[in-house]
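fwd from M.: "can u put these together and see what the complex looks like"

so here's what she sent:
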Amino acid sequence: MQKEKLKIRIRILASAYQHILETVGSLPPESGGILVGYLDDFIVREFIFDEKGATSPGGYDPDVEFLTASLEEARAKGYSLLGGLHTHPFGCNRLSGDYGNNIGDVGYIKEFLKVNPHLDKFLTPIAYSAFEGEFKFFPYWKNRLN
Amino acid sequence: MTKIYSVFEFGTPGQNPVEDPTIPILPPIPSGRFMPPESKIPKGGWRSWFPPFRDVYRTLDGRHFFEFEFHAMEDGNVEIDIIRMPDYPTLLVSNLHETHRLESNHGNEFRVCFGDASESSSIDSAQEWAGAWAEHSMRLIESGIEFPNV
């Protein structure tokens, strides 16, 4: 049981975590960014804040162009996309469903895995922003096989 | 910055390589690592459980306010209920076709009518459409100018 728990731990550098706190962790809910690091250890080494994404009280649509350019810069360091993080309003600590057209958390995760066949899993933590109270981090991810 | 040189395949033997500005500068791959595969960011949107939310639009002339309620639908589209807006002239009050309205599915009176519901498949596009609808509605109310795509 303990081993099982260790398997599902998301590992993240303190500097990346701090960057999350300073950006999406301090903004109104429904903002986010991507998590990058080496594929071989899957440790999140950087958080790239999507400062240009379209946000609203009910959702966050990433700025694909901005994140793609940022991801290319990260790739030059040997980093790969590992996942995406976004904040939810207080009280919504679960991933939302698949509403079609890559809308909704589960639907969007499916598309991430579809267009990135080299990823065996995709980290999708959500967080509550301190903007609404206390910052909280909920570790989720999706394995390709289940 | 790393300089890239090209060596002419059919050049004179012993010729020194020359700097070739047409070759892109290679990224500084960390020692002992390969470049990871190229990752892609697909278009789409993260959502919370998507409680309906309201937002107010102010018309371009600054004189009127429209309040909308945005509802995420299971098909990925967003329905826009009309909560508050300037009054229609009497003749238009019940004319849903000309005013581009439909009955609400969420307990409100009316919602915005789209020709193609998928035009409003994200909050961003829904808000854009709601704003455009508000501007056309004010032209209709104040000047009798019909919506352009009736």
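replying to her w this: Residues 123-143 of chain B form the longest helix (21 residues).
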